[in-house]
Design a protein that fits this description.
Order of helices and strands: HHEHEEEHEHEEEHEEEE
Number of helices: 6
Structural class: alpha+beta
Radius of gyration: 17 Å
Largest sheet: 8 strands, mixed
Bound molecules: 2-oxoadipic acid
Number of strands: 12
CATH class: Alpha Beta
CATH topology: Fumarylacetoacetate hydrolase, domain 2
Strand content: 25-35%
Distance between the termini: 44 Å
């Protein structure tokens, strides 16, 4: 088991890598004993540090690596989750400065906002649907603290699943009005289509991906709470971004929106 002081050191290194915009080498080479479970503990330490230092609070959760394509691309075999903080939220229509990022990428996502806790003992798809207040189009900006996004599953978990910022659309939709398997998604970069896909790319159904996370949280003595946002995972591969780039996401039956980087 990785010693507590090493866990603390890793969370400190990750915290400062983000703050100073410096990428770092993945940890598993140096600490092969870094397990998935310990990586979630390191993530919790990192989040406590960020909440304290940045005077912010938890606003929700994000799933990562939920699509087979993405798992294959990153060489991992299961999804991961991370924590969203209030100071990570940006708004459509406001240009986004690339200044704080190391090498950010952007992904289209379906966000669920909860009206009930997902307390278990076992959370099912029906529980997720019943607990959902509304569904809304979203984009996530990921910015791995590791060189060239080169990591193993425990590394990326410790790094809060590469989370950096998130943007929610403006129109709320009832989950009853949406086909969570067949809903189509078009993602455009600078007016050109870069990906088309359906909601089923997220573990067959994004609500199923949420059950995976909700049950994992319960096994760690935590739970999704009413009022929290959940980003259910990217539907496509992440796109690199630069100054002056514009991205548009549009979902069948959900509103779409655009963001521009400066
Ligand atoms: C890990 C996070 C990926 C998603 O939705 O798949 C992610 C990464 O690729 O850096 O957020």
């Amino acid at each position: 088991m990785l010693k507590v002081d090493v866990q603390e050191e890793i969370s400190n290194i990750l915290f400062h890598a983000e703050k100073n915009r410096t990428d770092i080498k993945k940890f598993v080479d140096q600490y092969p004993e870094l397990t998935i479970d310990v990586a979630y503990t390191i993530q919790e330490r990192l989040i406590e540090k960020k909440c304290f230092e940045e005077k912010t609070e938890i606003s929700g959760w994000k799933l990562g690596l939920t699509s087979k394509a993405k798992q294959r691309m990153m060489g991992v075999h299961e999804p991961s989750y991370g924590v969203l903080l209030q100071n990570m939220e940006l708004h459509p229509g406001e240009p986004i400065s690339i200044a704080p990022f190391i090498h950010a990428k952007i992904e289209p996502e379906i966000a669920f906002v909860m009206k009930k806790d997902l307390g278990g003992p076992v959370v099912t798809v029906a529980d997720v649907l019943d607990a959902t207040d509304y569904v809304i189009a979203a984009m996530e900006i990921i910015d791995s603290r590791y060189e060239n996004f080169n990591f193993t599953l425990p590394d990326v978990i410790a790094d809060n699943s590469s989370s950096s910022r998130y943007i929610l659309g403006t129109k709320k939709h009832s989950v009853k009005d949406i086909d969570l398997e067949r809903m189509g998604c078009v993602f455009k970069k600078n007016g050109q289509v870069c990906a088309t896909t359906t909601a089923a790319s997220i573990m067959g159904n994004p609500a199923r991906a949420i059950t995976w996370m909700a049950n994992k949280l319960i096994s760690r003595g935590k739970k999704v709470q009413a009022g929290e946002i959940i980003l259910s995972g990217a539907l496509t591969g992440a796109e690199t971004l630069q100054k002056d780039d514009t991205f548009l996401v549009r979902f069948d039956g959900l509103d779409g929106f655009e963001v521009t980087f400066t």
